[in-house]
Every structure is written in C-alpha cells, then in structure tokens.
Amino acid sequence: MFARTERLLLRPGWAEDAPALHRAICDEGIVRNLASAPWPYRPEDAIAFLATERQPQEPAMLVFRRTSADPELIGSVGFGRRPDGELEFGYWIARSQWGRGYATEAGRAAVEMARKSLRLTKLNAGHFVDNPASGRVLQKLGFKSTGRTASRYSAGRNAIAPCNLFELDLSGTDADVAPECELAMMAA
C-alpha cells in the first residue's frame, strides 16, 4: 500500500532501504518503545524487517519526508498482530523528527487505509506507560483508551512493561480522519 500526504510518502520497504532504515531507528529511545524491535538494533535487523513477508491485511510501510531532493526515511507505520491475535496499529518516528506532527500525519493516512482499503471496523493500539507522547498521538488519531493496562513484552527492553490499551471504532461514517490525504492504495 502507498499513501501520499501533504508532507509524507508512505510505501512498503524495499531491500535497498535497509541502510536508511537502520540509521533512522538505531536509537535506544525509539526501540525501547516498540514491541518487536531488538536492542541493540543491528543492520541485519533492518534487512530482516524489510524481508519479512506480510499478510495483505497487515501492511507495514516506511514513512518518508518529502523533500525537494530524494525523500528522507523518517519512520514506519503499519499493522501487526498482538500476542492475543488482535490486529494492532503501530508506528515510530526518528528522534530528529519528533515534535513536527509526522506521527499524526502518517497515522491519519494509515487509519484511512484501514478503513477504506482494508475495510476494518476496529483498530487496537497501545503505548508503554512511560511513553505518554505516543498516547497523545493515538488520541489525536481518534483512539480511545480502554481503561486497561496489559503487561507487554518489549524486545528493545528485553523485558515486560505495562502498556496502556486503546481502540478506534472505524465503522462510523461521520469520522473523516484524513481529508487532506491523497491516498493511492495499491497492493504492495
């Protein structure tokens, strides 16, 4: 799947993206807030992530900041399965790009993909309790707290940590999450 927003391009990752992916994510402050990325994050981890075969209903996309030159890889957004089998929305943005609204912009495009292309009626998400900024992004995207906290494994921490759980109802027709997105949804 592909999407283009005002400032971003979302697309599947390709093998040649591995060096840029490694540079963008190789930060313990990012990896510790992800469930499956290990720390330390090695170049071969980027290669393995990009080579992972994905189900059509579980796309993972790299997030590129559009520039006057080549786009710059600044993060990732997508969907995966939680340990309980539920589909979960997740994302990360490179530290140098924090505070610029990129997570929310990429998230809006991904939520629209979930609604319009994947035809999902509900999305789950979560954030580790010690990462409240991620919770604020989820709220901006329309996710609502379930009021539950679950123990979740973080490969980056190599430990279990408490995670606040969120849900987003996609079945309503009154929520136009991303009117500014120009979506080009194609099978990857």
UniProtKB/TrEMBL annotation:
MF terms (GO), sorted A to Z: acyltransferase activity, transferring groups other than amino-acyl groups
InterPro entries in alphabetical order: Acyl_CoA_acyltransferase, GNAT_dom, N-acetyltransferase
Assigned keywords, A-Z: Ribonucleoprotein, Ribosomal protein, Transferase
GO CC annotations, alphabetized: ribosome
Alphabetized SUPFAM superfamilies for the sequence: Acyl-CoA N-acyltransferases (Nat)
Domain N-acetyltransferase: 8-160
Entries under Pfam families matching the protein: Acetyltransf_3 (PF13302)
NAD is among the record's keywords: no
Name of this chain's protein: 50S ribosomal protein acetyltransferase
Origin species: uncultured Sphingosinicella sp
